[in-house]
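JOB MANIFEST
job_type = single_chain_structure
chain_count = 1
residues = 384
[input]
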Amino acid sequence: MDIITDLAMFITPLWIAVIVGVVVGWAWKPKWAFHPKDALLKFRSPRPSNPQNDTAFTFSTTSSSAREKDASASASASHLVTEYDLLHLWKLVEEKDGGPAWIQMMDRSTPTMRYQAWRRDPESGPPQYRSRTVFEDASPELVRDFFWDDDYRLKWDDMLIHASTIQECVLTGTMMVHWVRKFPFFCSDREYIIGRRIWDAGRIYYCVTKGVPCPSMPRHNKPKRVDLFYSSWCIRAVKSRKDDQLTSCEVLLFHHEDMGIPWEIAKLGVRQGMWGAVKKFDPGLRTYEKQRASGTALSPCARAAKINTKVTMDNVRSLENTISDLLETENQDSSDKPGGRNIPKLLIVGGAIALACTLDQGLLTKAVIFGVARRFAKMGGKRL
């Protein structure tokens, strides 16, 4: 027991020093230290092609060349968020995405709002969050505009310190926006380039927002840009807990991002600050509703929220079937390739060993044989 006590007294200060050193080192790391954006690339979902014109624009020009330029920019904005993103959000809502099970974190209520939250940890990438918020006596259209209105969000969301529109498509309502969010004192502020779009499936609104590339917006040391970002909602009417009438509004939110801080620390911060941020939703929504009722002019973002792409659930399901058929076709094509290209690794390496053992040409010959076998094994593995 004396030895164990001495070891504990010796090890405990060391662990405390290590933890303090990690936190302090992360907060004040020098510029030449490892930058996590390179590690994020393997976790990023496939992106559409980069927009041809990533600068802000308007549609009030009169010359034909300017109109063509604006039309090109509008078309590029419309491809930032596509039907594949709609399908992904629909699968999340219907719990058909194939991810791990959700673990409940929170269940709280106020007289006019109920909030539930879940978390799950995928095999790769940051923690993912799912939440369900139900507002009493609120329409889906009002809630949709409330969350989309960046001008008004600056008033109730104290974490958002800057929001501006980079691109906008007047046909689909797709937007590219620039956000800067405030983080705690030990972290620098974070910058986001977000593509977003809304689909209307019969007053069920699928609102997709995700990080997109923007070469025209240069990176800076501060604020630090967040590349991996996904935050999307499904907004729809549900029965009220008071009278079972469709007078309440449900918001299903799916969110994950890599903020550039250790994920365990990020999870702790989310757990501690979640309810403090969420309880501002309801007062902000009620004030927004009063302003809209008083006839206050709509902001550009609120006007864009009303430009939706009409879709039906049959369209979404057909899109799912189309993608499944394409994947099956690709798999069939890969399986129909000549068998000589899919030589098993074991056969290649085994043949090389047998050949090397039968030749008495020295170490160099054997090394060449094993090197060639290793190369073919890697090539065969890529095609399997």
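[summary]
The chain has a mean pLDDT of 77.
The radius of gyration is 27 Å.
exit_status = 0
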